[in-house]
Fold each of these.
Amino acid sequence: MFNKIREIHDAFDRKTLSSEELTHSYLSAIRSSQHNAYLTVCEEEALAQARAADLRIAKEGKVPRTTAPLLGIPLGIKDIFTIDGIRTTCASKMLDQYVPPYTATCVSRLESAGAVILGKTNMDEFAMGGSNENSAYGPVKHPTHSERVPGGSSGGSGTAVGAHLCVAALGTDTGGSIRLPASYCGIIGIKPTYGRVSRYGLVAFASSLDQAGPMTHSVEDAAILLDVMSGHDPLDSTSSFQPVTRCFEATQQQPNWSRLRIGVPKEYMIGGLAPDVESSIQASLKWFESQGAKLVPISLPHTQYSVAVYYIIAVSEASSNLARFDGVRFGTRPSHFQNDLLSFYKKVRSGFGPEVKRRIILGTFSLSAGYAEAYYQRACQVRRLIRQDFEQAFRDVDFIAGAVSPTTAFKLGEKSSDPLQMYLNDIFTIPANLAGLPAMSVPCGKDREGLPIGLHLIAPWFAEENLVGVASAFEKARG
Amino acid sequence: MSKEIHREIHVDEALTRKMADLARLELSDVEVVTFTSQLEHILGYFEKLQEVKVEGVDPLISPIELETPFREDRMIPSLVDSEGKPKVLQSAPDTLDNGYKVPPIL
């Protein structure tokens, strides 16, 4: 079993392994898996990509790691990314038969780098959820504890990596949807700076918050994927003109510990943390200190408002984005209806699941006449205050550290009847989305039941190289 | 939840039904009951924001400063399938020639 792209490429170079063999082994693991991690498996396409990779390796004598850093590497792609000709459901009955005519930019960049696409991974419907229990195609199981959730919304990608059903996977993070499953599944997950990775070809949930990123076994692999995906895309006007990241190089160097200042927000450490999570985070902070980094107590005073701000903004943007499901361009239509447009739309839109309906209704409320000022506009104002908290903090520190989640993976069904309880679980991950900051989850220990705990690292805007540099050193030392 | 909050926004089944109508969503009677109590709970929690002083704060719509990029004015052909039909139509419930077909609504 291989965990790292570098090890796989070494095996390709030595001719002890081919991409086709590796792809076959993953496809067979997916077939026999009970995790429900994949919604669509692209067997023929994957094998064709693998054979093409093998031909290229044979022709060039070895893997051209600079020009094709993902050559022959089997990946799982969250079913929110479009791929030309491959069914893309977003885990919703609304898109049950949707076959997009184009490929998301970040997926086409992975393919250009030689990746093999094994299939589309399960998720919460339209990425709305933190446990992957909101999929129209059934929940995903945690990779090692089958009675527990993998986290969401990129739960299929989290389990696919954690249960060795792919080498690495792609997720999206609107309020923690990469970092939370990464934390619960014991893998690496990076949410890049807003605008770092093109959103072209992502089914939109909340456009000012959504961002795609890698989910992997190692920081080095996450760096390789991010370097391939990042950079401006003319097809997404919100993608940044910042140069492409050079994260891989950063993972090969030692951070200058004596100059590093790590901010520890008091709002992230008070109450509510499970004891094992808290002790694991404290031990991680001590390790940074032992390397020579300085721990700096900081305050992010508006943290307590972030869940309310996030849920108002996210549902408002979602209700607007999901208005496109009108039965004209995709989806299904009722066979019988009176000549009444309202009832037509209601029939067309009956395929949304309960959480999606709840959020559309909340968003409609937050944007409606008489309420928009008190809800949506006020939330956007507090959002600025939350960003200002970070601007202030990053004058004194290089990183902010804490827990990804107050607990480890919870049991299936444990929180599904209380939406607010589920929303509050996102308290630590949401602020980075509201402010547009890069952030990641790195495994830092396990609780008494053997469930993984994730250390949360947040960096200033576009400082992904520094982020992965520190995370990589931490990972190697804690190995 | 404080009583004051519930006085400010009174969430009842009529409000849930009205919002569902505006969003073009059909709810079952059971959903109306469930959603109404959940909305009350969630909107009550949102009331927390009323205690923040926001006077004079400019709303933040996008988390990063965006430049407006201009593209070269260049024609890019639409995606078509092997028969020359626009690929964008392939998942449409109904089409006519090279367009979407919609039901009569008048």
Note: Residues 29-46 of chain B form the longest helix (18 residues).
Amino acid sequence: MKGPVLLAAGTIAAALAIGAAAAAQAQRGAAPPRTPIPQTASAYNGPRSPDRKPDLNGIWQAVTTAHWNLEAHSASEGVPAGLSVVEGGSIPYQPAALAKRNENFQNRLTADPLRKCYLPGVPRATYLPFPFEITQTPKHIGIAYEFAHATRTIFLDGTPHLDDLDFWMGDARGRWEGDTLVVDTVSLGDRTWFDQAGNFHSDALKLVERFTPIDASHIAYEVTFDDAKVFTRPWKINLVLYRRMEKNLELLDYECAEHIYEKLFKKK
Amino acid sequence: MITRIIALASVALTPVLVAAQQGAPASPPAPSAYPPYTRPVSTYAPPRTPDGQPDISGLYLAIPLPRNIETPLLPVTRPPNRANGEFSYSLNERPKLPPGAIVRPAGVDPADGKIPLRPEALARRKDIISKQEQIEHLDGRVLCLAPGIPRSTVPAPVVGYQIFQKPGYVVIFYEQSHLYRTIPLDGRPPLDPNIRKAMGVSRGRWEGNVLVVDVTNFTNNLENNWVIGAVSATPGIPAESLATGHGIPHSDRYRVTERYTPIDANTIHYEAIITDENVFTQPWTVAWYGFARAPKDYVPVEYACFEGNEKNLLLMTNTDISGVRVQVP
């Protein structure tokens, strides 16, 4: 019921706006301009929030091997094979950075920060094999992750980025471009990895994430990585985020730090 | 991020230092010095969210419990210290109690302010307190474990809250250790008792303008998961005292009913009724003015507790966790 009523209200508002513009033109005696009414680029037909944005509220999860390796890889012990999610196939590392990535890969069982239960960073948090929950309001979007109870608050209210601080989960500011949620994230530090394969970044990393809803239960998720200290050019990944549809689903716990202490206390 | 890690270390260490300086504790004030607790009745009607909930959303800060009144069992001559509510608000204006609010101890029922621990639970608590320098008995919050309920709402130096509301849910983000809770309002059943969460499993409902939340299914896997209280135990504090949460155990039966009462546009009163037949002789209640709307320019930031804690644990307990690795999916 609510949807159609709101749609109608929107249509009336648009009609009034066009009518007012036409009346203004008529008063000035000029020919009405031939400016086409802008079409929404999005074919999104799913539910919308009261402020007419796509309603992203709910629990989502990526279904992908990106968490093990963003690039194409064959299966290995405990790791399913996967296609590359990187546009063009491989990450454009500078030569020294590529050597560092390869070293990370060799040492991954001890060097991956996730194995110390550190916060996963962005965008890794998005495509971990754990669900996350979006809470959407006009001024803030909160994302709660099941892994290590990580969170992000994306400010949509014009709050500027903070200076001189680094955050494991970055400093996120978002805006709506049509039906796409665009999030700029900076101040990510240099201690998180993008996957278990050792793909990494420096403190110069800047991310632009684009959440474009395809329908009520799918989001096209694109991330642009820009880090002039590590890569030769900006590069992108593309994933699909799936709405978890199970009735009464809720986020549970993966309290990673508890597992560290369980191991430690057992040893002592 | 760095300053907050230091703040945590200070919280953990200060009681020991202060206690060493202060000598013998003075007599506590008689419990009768405080008026009896009555649940606040508010005539304030919050605005409504688009889906008709009372709108309490926004950014909040904790209101420090006034010094020396956390419990009548606490010596009144105790000097100020950052560990017991008199913490610094260097970046923010210190939130104040709303007009007419009665200043009183946090433990409101039973009226004597004592935690109604069963004898065996009291003995266990004394034992944990006596070993509090060992990592196995260290305050779970110093280990950066999720502190549970109601502990996450006990005023502490890192105390921003963000309350979100969306259709069918209230969601609370705690600045402390990036904790969060999603509280469904749709009357769904509790989860299977085999599922445990450090912050419990929450089920909420609006009773008028009051948000009532039942919280169950708490984790009970480590000795250090204490779900009530503030910081490490100050020597000399009676083990029945609520001045600290150190070592108050809980069992699988532990459950809490919380009441969030909007007092005015800027203040939410907090009450938690705690029940655990295996640990307490009766349900008991804590209450305080829990949330003050944050200044307009307040920006919550990440408090990455565990990531900065290795050196802290080495310093405090001579335990090196830097080599421990766990398998992740």
Note: The CA atoms of residues 174 and 183 of chain A lie 4 Å apart.
